[in-house]
Amino acid sequence: MIRIFRILLTGFLIAGSMHVQGQEKDEKNEKEKDSSDTSKLKKYSELLEGGTLQEGIFNIIRNKKDYYFEIPDSLMGREFLVVNKISRVPLQLNEAGLNKGMEFENKVITFEKDTLREKIWVRTLVPMVSSPGEDAITNSVKNNFSSSIVEAFDIASKNKKGASVVIKVNKVFNGKEQSFNDVLNNTGLGGSVKSGLSYIVGTKAFPRNVMIKSDLSTSVSEGGASLPITIRVACNIVLLPREPMQPRFLDKRVGYFSKKRWYFNDEQHAMEERKLITRWRLEPRAGDRERYLSGELVEPKDPIVFYIDPSTPKKWRDYIKQGVFDWQVAFEQAGFKNAVIAKEPTGEDADFDIDDVRYSVITYAASPKSNAMGPSVVDPRSGEILEADIIWWHNVMISLHSWMRIQTGAIDEKSRSNTFNDQHMGEAVRFVSSHEVGHTFGLKHNMGASYAFEVDSLRSRTFTDKMGGTAPSIMDYARYNYVAQPEDHLKAITPSIGIYDKYAIQWGYRWFDDRSKEEKYLKELVSQHNNDPLYFYGEQQDYKHTIDPRSQSEDLGNDAVRASQYGIKNLKRVLAHVLDWTYEEGDSYYKSGKLYMGIIGQWQLYNNHVLNNVGGVYLNTTVHGDGKRSYEPVAYDMQKKAVSYLNNEVFTFPGWLFVNDILEKTFPLKDSPLGPYEYSPYTLARELQYSVLYSLFQDDRLLRLLESGMYASDQGKKFTVNDLFDQTRNHVFAKTMKNKSLDTFERMTQKNYVDVLIVDINKLFEKTSKKSLQIPASLQIPTICNHVVNSGKAARNINFTSIKRVSEVTSVKKGELRTLLRLLQKKKNKGDRDTRMHYQDLINRIEEAINN
Length: 852
Hints:
The chain is α+β, with helices and mostly antiparallel strands. The protein is built from 26 helices and 26 strands. Among the domains are: about 10-240, no CATH class; about 245-560, Collagenase (Catalytic Domain) (3-Layer(aba) Sandwich), CATH 3.40.390.10. The strands form six sheets. The chain has an eleven-stranded antiparallel β-sheet. Strands 17, 18, 19, 20, 21 and 22 form a six-stranded mixed β-sheet that branches. Strand 12 and strand 13 form a beta hairpin. Helix 15 (about 560-575) packs antiparallel against helix 17 (about 590-610), helix 20 packs across helix 24 and helix 24 packs parallel to helix 26. The longest helix has 22 residues, at about 590-610. It is globular. The relative contact order is 0.07. Keywords: Hydrolase, Metalloprotease, Protease. GO terms for molecular function: metallopeptidase activity.
């Protein structure tokens, strides 16, 4: 289920308290008029008189304004999955990133017939607990993980011929009740639906599901006039298989999305918790199973089919479809041919509806948002993917254009113009399609894949042609080859389906007729490749809290310093052509400013890739007997090289980037809700440099450095906190030590260095006298209503920062300030007037910080 953020309605409202007008009166009137509050059953024939009947898993009867479900007795107690999707939104929600095709809520429900009270109860439960039916503990499992009632319907009629009951369902789809869908709270809007302005748009019934579309309205305000909002919602009620798919359990060394499950049995000493990977039910036909098991490629019983949204511009459809077909080679490694198909709906698909969960659709969203995503609808009992919806925002091509021009413009003439030709953009569309489709197969990002390639191999045409691009996995963010130089003459500079992708599909989708054979095969498959970097899986991390530098977004190769140095060479080449590549007769310099800002952003990206090696720790997913270390500090030489890079490229003012001829025509600029926002180069340079320094000396990085020096020495020389401060200080204050005058940019760097230390120390003691110490969430015992969750700071929940005030970081940061104070007091009368004033300023700041 996708949780949509707190909505920002640009120019109209800011998310916060929502005001709904006239709601209580509307709800009261609706209750009085609701004809379901009757104890007298209607004749089945009366409901059909003047009404319409749609036959399906439930027959849907419409009689004037009333809608009824006819539920067979045979389906009482069966499990259904309620899947809610956005079908239509107004501009304000579109602009905030809420679009057609997004799933916002689902739940498992059952219908329960109560003949005594003439009611149908609807119950929901979280199906994550299992126990053997014959075990004594199963009685306790039933009592301690029971279902909850979310809705009740009076039985309106009975069809004795069909052994079914009829219930009126208006209230759960017209906005009066939120038991089946709560669109406002589940999308972050909040407030209540105005039932007087909401209604059922239409219904459809099919053999395994029904779909009801509704227009649900509300009004919101933020201190001003109320703003009307109407959202069209498609609610699907899908019959789940009586026998769930055989689950496959997660191995953390292969990157799959997963669902948690708890297992109880009488023989245990403790409950077992395992995770089920999410995957499609892909299996050979009964007659092909022997051929499949003997190693022959066979077609699956039910292939995975993606439909292309008819709203997709025609010139992109074949590229999007090709991105789907590219995965066929991966499924062949799992034993299936023609396992994944992309098609456009035709006359044969008479019932086709994008909102129908029977169809997996690549939905094209007309929106200013520049993105794409690939969520799936999953049976939580088994991890089976039932349907997938890729959301493709029209403006994703803006990002593709920017990435290609900045990262490959130096080596690829096709990537230099303001508008690419359709074939060149189409190939980029194909790459994004493949990446998002990979998510719908259950695959997570593999941000560690690109680390498998030697940096200089990315300059080899032979190597890149053989490997197919920039990384062993298209699920990495190894977008384009910024390492290659013009003289390399490469052709394969974009990502493609790689070795890891084929291996991951093989591990997730190989079919077995025996559970013990399956477990043995999967274990051996992972063990076979466990030490091969081409098969390495690196969990995605928060870019602000990266611990393992191998698994970073948008990096290339196994040496961030070398890769970034090559990248900067190409950035300088692109920068030299900003004005002529963006030239259009009579046009403003808007596109020039945008390209200039993109180059600066790419430079900062390289800085962060390098920075995260300092205090970095390789987090290996290990198992008993594999002989690998679970935690490996980045080698001394690599960390020292990383600091040298930062000294040369960041802490030495990069005049090539911030002082150049472009500034005669435009500043760097970025779009904002108020229009293009221009950044003065000096201010931008100062802020970006400050952010690198702040991250370099952040507490958890220093704590990792301090801790790595405490353990076994057989891993070689350790890079220490003192090494970091000495190497950085000796560069930043090099001219001070030599009694030389400082220019504006050198003074800027020294101020940034000192201020970062002062701010960090002040934060350590901020308001501590008014706060009581609390147990960190990571150490609290979870309860049923308050589960401990991942903070999102990193792929692993490793605590490096608890009670920082009594850690060594306070001592080392204050110690560094005292070292600087001694140096500045000694040199305060050296240099020109501006330099001396600067030194006195720093002395005053440091003394105040230390004394406070």
